[in-house]
Amino acid sequence: AEYMGASLALHCCKGGVGPLLVLTVLEQLRRGVATAPLHEWLATAPSIVGIATRFRMDGNAPRFFDALPLWLFALETISDERWGGEADCVAAVDAFRERLLSYAPATKRSLLARLKAKTASASERAASPVLGLAAHGCLLQLDLLFMRKEQAGGWRGGGDAGHRVTEDEFDARIAAVRQLAEKAPFSDARFAEFFALLDSLNSELLTFADFKAAFLTALVPIAPYLQFL
Predict the structure, then answer these.
(1) How far apart are CA 28 and CA 146, in angstroms?
(2) What pLDDT does 64 receive?
(3) Is residue 95 within 8 Å of 53, Cβ to Cβ?
(4) Do the Cβ atoms of 45 and 33 come closer than 8 Å?
(5) Bigger pLDDT: 150 vs 139
C-alpha cells in the first residue's frame, strides 16, 4: 500500500495534478509509518520528502501558492527526531536544498550556490516574488534545523546528515536575505511582514507550527485555508 501511495504521489507530480492532492497522499503515507519501527519509517520518510521536492512549482499559475505546503511538509518530515545521517536522508536533504536554491532570488551569499542549482526551469526561477521569498524562508528554516541539531549533539546515530550550519553562518544568511527588502519587487510593503518574521526566526519560543502560520500569513494572506493543511 505504501509503494502504491508513493507511486501515485510521484505520478501526480508529473501529471499536472494539483499540489493539494499530492500533499494529501503524502500525509497519508507519513501517518501510515508514524508509529512504525525505525527501519520502516526510514524506508518511507526520505522518499516522501523527495516527492514533495520534485513537485514543479509554477509561479505563473493563478494559485501557485497551493504548492507551498509541500515545502513545509518536507521541512516538518526532516525535523522528525528519527531523521538521521543515512545515505537516503542525506540525499533527500541535498535535493530539497538544491530545489529551494533554484527558486530563491540571488543574494550575495547564495549566488554561487544558486548558479549550481538547475532543477527549476528559467520561467520558474523568474516567477512570483512570493515564491522566491518562500524559498528563502524554507532555506533559513532548514538551516535553523541543522544548526539546532548540531548544538544539541547531532543527529540520531551521529553524523551531520550532510549539512552543517554554525550560528554565525545562520545570522549572516538572515542578514543577506534581509537585504532583499532594499530593492524591488521585495521592497513592496506587502512583504514587510515576511522580513519582520526573520527577526524572530531563531527564537526558541517560535515553534514550527508558529513559523508555518506566520510564513503563510505573511506571504499568502489571501489563502487562509493553507493554515489548516
Answers:
(1) 26
(2) 82
(3) yes
(4) yes
(5) 139
